[in-house]
Design goal:
This protein is α/β, with parallel strands linked by helices. The chain has a seven-stranded mixed β-sheet with strand order 12-11-7-10-9-8-13. The chain has a six-stranded parallel β-sheet with strand order 3-2-1-4-5-6, with helices on both faces. β4, α4 and β5 form a beta-alpha-beta unit. α6 packs across α8. The longest helix is centred in the last third of the chain and has 20 residues. The two termini are 37 Å apart.
Length: 335
């Protein structure tokens, strides 16, 4: 397959490495706005550097991945779909989800497959937890708890343009709980606080947040996030049902220790970054996209899925600032 990649920053570089190691990719073409970056990546991975996005999209691709900065996602997605190229786009699809809504129907009716980047859907433990729920092992679901605890905050410049903790960080939790439960969130109540660096408050953001989600069948979701988890990068999913319970993320790299001196789990070392925590998930995610691009399967995470996670993030952001429960229908345009 002839695959293109736009953007070679932190996530783009990871995708480039995974694509270059995938036997189904015959030629990898890469481009980046920063001078020399595409050439350096191409030399390292045996890829082909392309001077511009337009040239890349016109080069006869079987599929393209968009790993560039968030403001470029929607314009590039529209251009790739217009060119008829199966497209993988990192989350979020746009800074403003309302802008995406204007093109949702056109993209969906184009016939061009689109996959949005939410790697937790491809984590083996998350998949096993979903399979247990779908198979009836847990009975009916009472609560789902999703956790994303970062070991240290991102730079102040990043926080200032991130859109806030719910849009930038918790959006992964929102997608994960929708996907695992197969249910829609109808109402949220969110809160947050700042006990760390002052730049969070200066950006009208918080460094620690929680949200209670109510699903359409009465299941409750609990979302926990912080930028300050000194023990390491902690991502977990817990499903508590009437007949059983299961968790993803309870591996030897879990950055949590038991207060019971007789308990030796986990042995460590602790996960320190999302790239080591989800290394296998990212590989599976890219390989799945290649199957989507080849017409071998439908997209496992559609543009509509990506938007729904964004609407939950919008509702939580409003709830945080207005200090009240917010129904998702308050922020989501009429469907």
């Amino acid at each position: 397959m002839r695959i293109g990649l736009i953007g070679l920053g932190r996530i783009g570089a990871l995708h480039a490495a995974n694509l270059s190691n995938n036997d189904r990719v015959d030629q990898l073409l890469v481009t980046d706005m920063a001078p020399g970056v595409a050439e350096a990546t191409a030399a390292k991975l045996g890829a082909t550097a392309v001077p511009s996005t337009d040239a890349l999209l016109a080069s006869g691709l079987d599929g393209v991945l968009i790993g560039s900065s968030t403001p470029t996602h929607l314009p590039l997605l529209r251009a790739a779909v217009a060119a008829g190229i199966p497209t993988f786009c990192e989350k979020p699809v746009a800074e403003d989800p309302y802008a995406v809504g204007e093109y949702l129907e056109a993209i969906n009716t184009s016939g061009v497959p689109v996959q949005i980047g939410f790697p937790r859907r491809f984590d083996p433990a998350f998949s096993a937890a979903k399979a247990a729920l779908d198979g009836g092992e847990l009975g009916w679901l009472a609560t789902v708890h999703s956790t994303t605890l970062d070991p240290a905050p991102p730079p102040a410049a990043y926080v200032a343009v991130s859109g806030g903790i719910f849009r930038d960080c918790a959006i992964h939790d929102f997608d994960a709980v929708r996907w695992v439960t197969g249910r829609e969130v109808v109402e949220v109540y969110a809160t947050g606080s700042n006990r760390g660096a002052p730049f969070f408050g200066e950006a009208d953001d918080v460094d620690t947040a929680s949200a209670i989600l109510t699903f359409d069948d009465g299941t409750l979701g609990v979302i926990s996030n912080t930028r300050y988890n000194g023990q390491g990068h902690d991502v977990r999913l817990e499903l508590h049902g009437s007949a059983g319970a299961i968790a993803a993320g309870l591996d030897e790299g879990l950055p949590l220790r038991s207060a019971d001196p007789a308990v030796q789990f986990p042995a460590g070392p602790a996960h320190v970054f999302f790239m080591d925590r989800f290394a296998e998930a990212f590989r599976i995610e890219v390989d799945t996209f290649l199957s989507v691009a080849a017409g071998q399967q439908a997209s496992p995470c559609t543009l509509a899925d990506g938007l729904e996670a964004s609407w939950i993030a919008e509702a939580c952001t409003r709830s945080l600032h207005e200090r009240r429960p917010v129904r998702v229908d308050e922020v989501r345009p009429a469907r």
